[in-house]
Each structure stands twice: as C-alpha cells, then as structure tokens.
Amino acid sequence: MRIGIVGATGIVGRELVSLLATSKLKATELRLSATTRSVGKKVATHLGEQNIAELNVGFFSGLDLCFFCVSGGVSETWVPVAKAEKVLCIDNSSRYRMEADVPLVVPEVNGELLRGQPQIIANPNCIVSPLTVALNPIQLKFGLEDLCISTYQSVSGAGHEAMAQLETELTNYPGRLSQGQGQFLLNIIACIGSCDSRGHSQEEMKIIQETRKILDLPALPMAVTAVRVPVKRSHCQAVTFITKCRTSAEEIRQVLSAGDVRVSDVAPQPIAVQGTNQVYVGRIRENREHRPRSYSFWLAADNLRKGAALNALSIAEHWWALQ
Q1: What average pLDDT does the segment 124-138 reach?
Q2: Which of 258, 314, 275, 322 has its CA nearest to residue 108?
C-alpha cells in the first residue's frame, strides 16, 4: 500500500509515523510532507529514512491513502486535490467533521460507516474519540438522557510550540515564566480557543457537536467545560451522565469491561496512560445526591494516540479490511 502523510513533522504526524511500524497496513511506499521549511529533511521510518517532500499535486499521484495531520485551512486546500487523484483522505483537522456527507469515525463505535466507501473520512477531536468509546456501550444498553463533561487537556494537545513553551517554563522555574493567560506551568487555562457570544469555547462546541454526531444522538443535552492543564501528555475527563433506564454502577462497570475500555477502581492518571493505546475508566459511581439514574466516571487516554494518530490509523485499517 502506498501511504502519504501531510504534516509528518508535527506532533500527531510523528506519532503516526511511529505507529505505522506495527500497523496491520503493509506500506510499500511512505511519502511524507510538511511545511516548506522542513522540505529536504530526513525522517526515520520503518521503511528507512524518508525525505520530507514538497506538497504539490504530484505528491498525491499514485497514493492509495493519505493522512492529513494539519490545520483545517491546509486540509481545505489539499484534501480536494488528493480526492481528485482518487486517494482516500483521512483528515485529522476539524474542517470536514461536521459535513453531512463526510463520516466522522471511531471504528469501535461507528466503523460500519466505512462500508459506504467514502473518499474523505474525518478523525474526531482528541477528547471525543475516547469519550465515545466509553459512552457507546452505555448508550446501547441503557440509553443516554443527559451528559455533562469537564475536560483536563494536556499541553501536547496545543502542538509543538505549546510543548516547547512548557519545557522552557520548566527549565526557568522558579525564575521568569510566561506572563498572562498563556502560562502553562503552575496554571490552568480555562478556555481552549476563542469563546462565542454565549461564553462557549471553540473546543467545547467541537466536543458537543462531534459527540452527538458519532453517537447518532443529535438532540442529546450536553454541557462541557474544557480546560488546559500543566500536563505534557494524555487528556482526562470527568464524565457525568443520566441514563434512560435504571441501572447500577456495577452494571455500567460490566458493560464497559466487556467492550474496548480498561476499567479500574481507581482514577487512571495521565502519566500512567501516556504511550498506551487504550481508553481507561475508573471511579465509576452512582450520584445519589444528584438525580435518579445519574452516574459518573473518570476517563483518561493518550491524546496523541487514541485521541488522534491511533484512531486515524485504526480508521485506515478498518477501511482496508473492508476492501
């Protein structure tokens, strides 16, 4: 299989290059592209060192599939070019996620959408992928009436520059740190992205819209607060939901354990789950001081893997298995 990666030197692109070494996909050719300043640089891959190539129409010629690990603006420009070359496009940006004719896929949840042989497939937000893996079996068994989430998102979710800033702050501590709301170390940033006129951040609206689309629950009542915390890698979520049917914390534990979730009694910590491929859930409990049928759990997952690169790769593997 001839595979391309646009954005191969970015934080998600590099993770994807690493994961391809053990993938079910057997790449016979791997083409890498990134920003113009990276053209000509060499990247170590399981197929040997590969040069970063210039991104142009010729880059896509003859490819079977291409991963886009870039901004929405770059995807908007180049995904249609790749599509015209008959290349399967798996886009990690937010550009196509809410397009009605583009499937937004988490293979464990709605992988059947790939049977329609779409040419553009959207990879969800880094919070939404692990969240829907955990919520889907609960929704299928007990139904979901209401959902409330608070996210604790690591700095790696903001990209290379943010990670470099955090490293600098760690090096300079306790001396001069970044000023204002942009400081990561010893701080929490309570709004990810700009806020709309109602006070909702871009990140919060992405989580709401994408969760509803993947679970096929367009009217699901949701409240989300998304914050950035001074952790390098792995996102965590405090998830509270109300089921339609009466159940118990133990039954929810059993349903999750039977699926694609690692369940434990204690809350999984971000430092413990980084570099892993699973979705981890702990502290499953009934909220008897809240409302009937109210339950909560704590979720953690590696945002660069299950939240991004691994899910994109799983989409490709699932698609290839259906050929």
Answers
A1: 98
A2: 314
- Angle subtended at Cα 315 by Cα 309 and Cα 318, rounded to the nearest 5 degrees: 140
| Contact indicator for 123, 314 with CB cutoff of 8 Å | no
d(CA 208, CA 37): 36
Measured distance CA(4)–CA(22) in Å, rounded: 16
| Cβ neighbour number for residue 174 with a 10 Å cutoff | 7
pLDDT in tens, 202-217: 999 999 999 999 999 9
Checking if the pLDDT of 180 tops 70, the result is no
Q: Any idea which fold 128-154+188-303 has? A: Dihydrodipicolinate Reductase; domain 2 (3.30.360)
Coil vs helix vs strand at 259 = coil
Express each pLDDT in 286-301 by its tens digit. 999 999 999 999 999 9
Helix (H) or strand (E) holding 279: strand 279-286
Fold category of 2-124+308-321 in CATH? Rossmann fold (3.40.50)
Domain boundaries, the chain: 2-124+308-321, 128-154+188-303
Catalytic residues: 126, 235
